[in-house]
Amino acid sequence: MEYEAVIGLEIHAELLTASKIFCGCATTFGAPPNTQVCEVCLGMPGSLPVLNRRALEYALKMALATDCRINGESVFARKNYFYPDLPKGYQISQYELPLAEHGHLDIRVNGASKRIGITRIHMEEDAGKLIHSEHRPVSFVDFNRTGVPLIEIVSEPDMRTPEEAVEYFKGLRNILLYLEICDGNMEEGSIRCDANISLRPVGRSEFGTKAELKNMNSFRFVRQALEYEIKRQRALLDAGKEIVQETRLWDAAQNQTISMRGKEEAHDYRYFPDPDLVPVKIDESWLESIRAGLPELPSAKIQRFQEQYGLPEYDAEVLTAEKTLGNDFERIVDEYPHPKKVSNFFMGDYLREWKKAEAEKVPLKVDPKRLSMLFTLVDKGAISSTASKGVFLEMVATGKDPETIVKEKGLMQISDSGALEAVAQEIIEAHPKEVADFKAGKTKVMGFFVGQLMRQTKGQANPQLANEIFQRLLGK
Ligand code: ADP
Ligand code: MG
Ligand code: ZN
């Protein structure tokens, strides 16, 4: 039997506010445990929550950026469950009347564009963090994260492959970063993804029973977990077994998903409107001012990069896929107004170094003026383009300027025709057969001569000049 996967994602993003969603405690990551807490976020009796206006503004920005319809009135609800990281015994979330609904995000996979529906975006508070001791049978709890503002972005079950799911996840993260409302730090858990997946026979319109893969904080995990889950569910269906609706975890060490618990239904949570919080009414003029203040978003930037810089769509997409990359590109083009050349450099050497730097969390720092100097050295023929790659790497590693590096490493291209001519003469004398071939009309032999010269000068000869010299010496 041939199956098709059906995937929907629930993505949680921590908002970059200075204080928590319902109290004034700081949200700084990494503070000593339980130092950023108060009676409100610890759920002491008699304390009252007050909504953080900035958190609401950030949530609205995301809703506008994903073309959601904003509900004029939304309601906070209590989601009741017991877990040691949840001091109140309930999480303040939104249920029946969320902040925003019916949005979408366009993704590109294999050169084709696809629209993924966004069911809803709602606001809620984060829970605390449990730390399980490796040495003793005890666990610790840190409530610093309790009450950090989150938005949950729930997609329609519109994705059909792990690639689509990852592209959608990346696209949302990118928008959060463009909007500067989330730090995007996946390792610290600032963005987490629950992936829902089911299979159905190709051609069937009803969905199958889904499994929910909880709390993944990397694109790779999402891809691997979904790929694993497709295999697991297919094997069960092929064996005539039923899929159990459940919550599973991705076990990165074992490379498999494991069952965590049976999936609870919404009614298990006993949702009800939180009587301590008034309904959220969105002032129209405030909303309009937020809309007017939205920055340029990736989709608009892709268009602009094509129009303003004459770049192919592919280049524009790669360059806008991360905010800092596009910014770097524009700063460099300001200094060195040859967009396609700069773009080519970005697609290759720059992107590779940039990714390495991102992975190591030391942002790539290359001064646009110095990069412009490097490009100009190649344009003037002072160094070869091959040599320029090494110079770039050295610039990244040492922060030195390209001219200093070229001098120190002796990479100056030899453009002194006298010096090259002497070497060319020796090469000609040493290869009478090739000379005869050339004179007999085999012009391809020129490549051989130039190659020899490059070899003898360790790549420092200016190839164009070398060509001219051989043409002249061989009497052509
Ligand atoms: P639940 O109540 O189990 O959380 P929801 O209806 O809220 O289910 O959906 C949660 C997520 O699961 C959404 O992103 C939705 O698109 C996705 N989803 C719903 N049904 C399926 C299905 N049969 N297969 C895959 N994903 C699904
Ligand atoms: Mg759900
Ligand atoms: Zn607090």
Q: What's this, in brief?
A:
The chain is of the alpha+beta class and 476 residues long. The protein has 15 helices and 16 strands.
Give a verbal description of the structure.
The protein is of the alpha+beta class. It folds into two domains: 3-287, no CATH class; 417-474, Arc Repressor Mutant, subunit A (Orthogonal Bundle), CATH 1.10.10.410. 41% of the residues lie in helices and 21% in strands. The protein is built from 15 helices and 16 strands. The chain has helices spanning 53-65, 162-179, 219-238, 284-292, 298-309, 313-320, 323-335, 339-360, 368-379, 385-398, 402-409, 417-430, 432-439, 445-456, 463-473, and strands at residues 3-14, 69-70, 73-74, 76-80, 90-94, 100-109, 112-125, 129-132, 139-142, 149-155, 191-201, 211-216, 246-251, 256-262, 272-273, 280-281. The strands form four sheets. It has a nine-stranded mixed sheet with strand order 2-6-7-10-1-11-12-13-14. A hairpin with a 2-residue loop joins strand 6 (100-109) and strand 7. Helix 5 crosses helix 6 and helix 12 (417-430) crosses helix 14 (445-456). The radius of gyration is 30 Å and the shape is elongated. The model has no long low-confidence stretch (mean pLDDT 91). The structure holds adenosine-5'-diphosphate, magnesium ion and zinc ion. Residues 20, 23, 25, 37-38, 40-41, 147 line the site of zinc ion (ZN).
